[in-house]
Amino acid sequence: MFKLLDLPFDAAALEPHMSRDTLNTHHGKHHAAYINKTNAFLKERSNAPATLEEVVLLARRENDKKLFNNAAQAWNHGFFWHSLTPEAQGEPQGALRGAIEKAFGDLKTFGLEAKAKGEGHFASGWLWLVADRSGAAQLVDLHDADTPVADDTYTPLSVCDLWEHAYYLDYKNERGRFLDAYLNSLINWRFAERQYEAAQRGERGWTYPV
Ligand SMILES: [Fe+2]
User: Fold this and answer.
1) How far is the CA of 23 from the centre of ligand 1 (A)?
2) What is the pLDDT of residues 98-112, one digit of tens each?
C-alpha cells in the first residue's frame, strides 16, 4: 500500500506563485485520490509490485488503463512536488546547464520554448524536461497521466502539471502566467541537477517512497 507523501515544503511556502488553497486541494484531494485508487486496484491483485514505478510498468504492460492512470498520476504528482521549491534557485548549473545550452542555445530560449510547449498543449497533461539516453536535454509534453516512468527512453529532470486543477484557483484560465511562475520562480534546479547527474550514472534518480 502506498502512502500520500508529505509535501517537501509548507503548503503556504510557494505563495504568491501557488496558493495554500491550491496546494491543499491539489495535494490533499487530487494526489490523495490517485494514491487511494491505486491502492484499491492493487488490493484486487495477487501480483501487486512493491514499488510505484513497478506498478506503472505493470499497468502499461497489461494495458490496465485504470491502474495506469491512477498509479502514474500518483507518481507524477510526487515528482512534481519535488520539482518545486520556495528557495530561490537562480539558474541551473553544472552538467545540466551545459545540456540545456547545447539543446536550446541559452536559458532564455529554453524558457521561451518551455512556455510555448506548455501553453500549446491541448487539455490535460504534463510538461517534462527530460534527458534521453545520450544525455541530451529535451522538452516533452505528455497527455493525461502519461509519464517517462512507463518506458526507459528518458530520465525525468523536472515537470510542470498542466491539468487545470494545478492553476485554476490562482490563475483561472491563464496557463501562461502559471508557466511563468513555474519557470521563473518555482522550478527546483538543484533537484533537476541531481536528476541529471543520476541519469549520467545510468540511474533513474528520484523514486516514490515505499
Ligand atoms: Fe495535478
Assistant:
1) 10
2) 999 999 999 999 999
